[in-house]
Amino acid sequence: MEKKQANLSFHHSEKFNANLFLLSGALDRLEGMKGEKLEGGKEVVIGLLDGLRRQLKMSQSYFPPEKASLIEKGLDDLQADLELDQYDNAREKLGKVISAVATVSNEHINVLLKEDLI
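User: That's the sequence. What structure does it adopt?
Assistant: Structure tokens below.
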């Protein structure tokens, strides 16, 4: 893998992962909410998911196609669980997405470490 591609891919995957952790915090907050607050909170989380999908589309050339598909499916599944108030399942899906993105990041950081760039 080319150093420049590894650097860009690492940057995009780490940025995406950071946003997934923000989503995790928002998802955790839903558990204590009820009524209108819960519905409003769910709308905010769905907005975050939409933003992550846009970010994934913009970064798609930096993710292996199979990982990008896995990440997109994970976000879709997470939203489906969220809409059914299945927060534990949604957190599990989020964990899988974080793992997939971390794998991409790790693959690229290894190239950068091998080249003594970081």
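The chain has one domain: 3-114.
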